Amino acid sequence: MTTAGQNKSTDGSTLTVLLALAANLGIAILKALAGLLTGSAALLSEAAHSVGDTVTELLLLTALRRSRRPADRRHPFGYGKERFFWSLLAAVGILVSGAAFSFYEGYRTLRGEGGPEGRDAWVGYVVLALSAVLESISFSQGVRQLRAEAARLGETWRSYLRTPRDPTVKSVVLEDSAALIGILLAFAGLALHQATGSAVWDGSAALAISALLVVVAYQLAQTSKGLLIGQQANIKLVRGIRIRLAEQPEVEKVVDILTMIVGSDRILLCARLDFRDTLNAADLERACVRIDGTLREEFNDLDEVFLEPVPRNDPVLRARVLARYGDILERDPRPAPADAGQPPAGRPAS
After folding, report:
1. Which of 97, 116, 225, 348 can bridge 52 by disulfide, Cβ–Cβ 3.0-4.6 Å?
2. What's the pLDDT score for residue 347?
3. Topology of 235-330 in CATH?
């Protein structure tokens, strides 16, 4: 990824998070006031949900800002993983501030310990309708950013959502999706409570919102966990790099490929190659420099490239590779020539 491309991607993520922050802050205030006026546990749960989302957006903004810092002596691979750390904290924030409070409100209401309810229900309906409009605006921006990131990587948006390289966009989309579902749950709880006079519906809606937030927090935490541990780059990128390495005239065999996402649009690559035995030391050095440049030119998400000359038949190394990948690296990744499988001229096929 070029610097301009990285800046464009980061600017898009920042706009998405800022829009979500503004929407969630306004919605949280409206829901809290409506919850206090109506005494609805579902509305108070939704207010806590929006407060949690607001805190999440602040953490994501912190992630975007801190992850931009350049590499230095203490962090030679840069600070890109700060984005993953703060995203993990955001997931914990959703779990604590949103899910826990919603569960408490639902439990308290079902036990009959809530305050007077059913008053001014129209206020709740109006606030929920306004909240749905604001959340839809934020959700639309998040989906646009998600589709743009997926298209840039040549993936479908569903595939990108499963294994994103930028958890901030996924966080916003999942939060807004949960918020829209939560609004429907709160609306149903409020309406059924008003129609039946039973607070059970209101408390049940609050518990359902709590369960929804637990699922969202778990999904976001799993994404951040994978990236923090050291997730492999997109498999299409890995395959493309392997093919390009195998095509180099100095390379006899691609022995091993290791990749790791070290930040949004930043990939670390370590390739172990069996070079031709006819190369001398100077040839080998020039080949490494040339291959490095070729890879960076084609795969501009590469941040650091390490090329290590190794023998293909080293038993310890081969055992490690087989344990990690199976025999996939044993197969020749280069496409077969057009006349592959054809018998030589003048000789019939057997």
Report:
1. 97
2. 39
3. Alpha-Beta Plaits (3.30.70)
